Amino acid sequence: MNRYAALAPLPDRLNRLHELAIDLWWAWNVEARSVFRTLDYPLWRATAHNPVRMLWLIPREKLDWAAADPAFAQLYDRAIAALDAARAAHNTWWTRTYPQHTGHSIAYFSAEFALHQSLPIYAGGLGVLAGDHCKEAGDLGVPLIGVGFMYPQGYFHQHVSAEGWQEESYERLTWADAPIEPALTPDGKPCITAVPLGDRSVLVAVWRVRMGRVKLYLLDTDLEENAPWDRELSARLYGGDRETRVQQEIILGVGGVRALKALGSDPVVFHLNEGHAAFVVLQRIRDLTERGSSFDDALEEIHRTTVFTTHTPVPAGHDAFPFHLVEKHLAGCWGSLGPHRDRFLALGAHDNGAGVQFNMTALALRSAGSVNAVSQLHGQVTREMWGSMWPGVPEPERPVSSVTNGVHVPTWLAGDLADLFAKYLGADWLDRHDDPALWDAVLAIPDAELWAVRQGLRRYLFTFVRDRARQRWSEEHVGTPRIVAAGTLLEPEALTIGFARRFAGYKRPELIFHDADRLARILNAPGRPLQIIFAGKSHPADDVGKHHLQRVYRRALDPVFGGRVAFVDDYDLHVAHFLVQGCDVWLNNPRKPLEASGTSGMKAALNGVPHLSIGDGWWAEGFNGANGWMIDGGTSGNDYDAVDAADANALYRLLEEEVVPAFYDRDAAGVPHRWLATVKESIRSIAPRFSARRMVKEYVERMYAPAMERRTVGRT
Ligand SMILES: *Cc1c(COP(=O)(O)O)cnc(C)c1O
């Protein structure tokens, strides 16, 4: 493919360096990471940790020098050996546990995947969850194949104007800098598949991302052979109107199944990560009927082998389209299913209050035999919300279970903490990290050592924040107030709260400003300052969210808060790493029960950044009384003003009476023992339970393996 250029040859001694750079597994392997850091640290920083781009930019002398340096060559050899081990398919948790399923695979469909900042094909939590799921599946040897979209313009970059208004800009991805390669068919040709869309056919190119054992295939319509409007279909994540969206979803579902076939894959189980991919069902029914099944038998087989995860109780998160739109764009997809068209369309029928529409969640709920929500509380909320799907079935019996989300520990844990865990939990701690008993050893880490690491992580964060402010100042000449708002006046030793998430009304980003005078007193307390760092994007079409962002930004500009409120722009995986590792407390105050799970708090908690949160999503089951704090205003219901006031009051009381005093209660050496007890309990209780390892094992044990047992088609 013409956009994919070849790199200049590498020195012989380092001839697999490109292979290492382009396999995203490097991103969570300590040795592979240090290969690139050591190779050229300034370039590592300048490319925001993009080794593929580094290899384009690095001067040849540097490579030759590295090849001749025995210490570097040794590090490189260890990383390459680890890469080979990470790709080997034998002797993994999966092969040891499920030898009877050798050769079976699971296709995992998602509209977004957050794997690394160098591949901007994600918007937020859904993508992070999908990315962490794939990474952990790879670590466990679970034969997962990801299917998603290659968005050439990705998700937008955020700029905030002097007035605090979010502005979006899209950058075309430089293909050569991305960790992708053309996916090849079994006969070695670039995979291009045709998807019927309306009365025409759209060509879809397929890109491959490697992550150790797991491969992810990304669909891309930006091919010269396509009409200009079709080339744009995959341009942006969540861009465009309803018409674009329904076409994207047809490409993802129908095109994804076709692409897998063209690639020679024949997955046994299909996991739909959110309703966006539910058209998978259409192509699968069609394939099965063309192989001789009746419509009903095909539907039953799909029921046996489809897993569906729903991710939000917020109505806007469930795509629904007018029937005429769906019929128009599906016109070419029916083939031999033509006579059953109405039966298929009925699978998506749902009235969400605005009349009956074709609803992607309804289609997925009616087609999948395994349906789950992403926390226990969200399970209950989902069973209530979608009750009309199961008329007459009482709430607890409706077929929606819960698999609480988790985060990929090697991705999110700070390197300095990983070193500390290796010392006190055992060198092989990562191999056993979903075992809760392992983590009791955290209690034995000397407070002074843990505190030194925590202080160091906060300093990395401030260096990062200051560098970003410096960049805006020198490159974009933003005025002084915005330099203050970017965090220039933050104190590296002061108690720091992080609040980073999408700006949406239900997340109540302004709650902490409910009583501005009281907050200002807490922030500016002599000798015990508190500071808050905000980050997050608002959906480009969500003006309400943008107004929330603007009001928060204005607080950051307000001298009343003494420069102790900061807003870091362009939140992405890179920013998230610094924030979840470097803050002291992670704040989360959604309007209950609208936060299905949340995962940023898990990332923070395992780094010893205790959670300060409403008892919503994962925290309803994660809080144990000693591992953080629960904000509970004691009020619920539809009087939002009353709920907000009560919750804000509860938040202030926790800050005044518990959080701030514990943080500043120091011994003669400056170590806050009371604080560190909460830090340790946060790590001990949360790291194993809210790890992606626990989560992926649950998906395998409760959903994938039973589906493999249940299937009837293709059995020998
Ligand atoms: C973890 C993460 C999220 C999801 O965080 P929530 O707690 O679910 O809001 C969103 N965006 C980025 C960049 C993340 O790293």
Question: What does it look like?
Answer:
With 716 residues, the chain is of the alpha/beta class. The protein has three domains: 12-87, no CATH class; 103-154 and 170-405, 3-Layer(aba) Sandwich (Rossmann fold); 409-690, 3-Layer(aba) Sandwich (Rossmann fold), CATH 3.40.50.2000. It is built from 28 helices and 21 strands. Strands 1, 2, 5, 6, 7, 8, 9, 10, 14 and 15 form a ten-stranded mixed β-sheet that branches. A six-stranded parallel β-sheet has the order 18-17-16-19-20-21, with helices on both faces. Helix 10 runs parallel beside helix 13 (323-330). The protein is globular and about 80 Å long. The chain binds pyridoxal-5'-phosphate.
Descriptors for this entry?
binds pyridoxal-5'-phosphate, Rossmann fold, ten-stranded mixed β-sheet, globular, 28 helices, single chain, 14% strand, six-stranded parallel β-sheet, 21 strands, 716 residues, alpha/beta
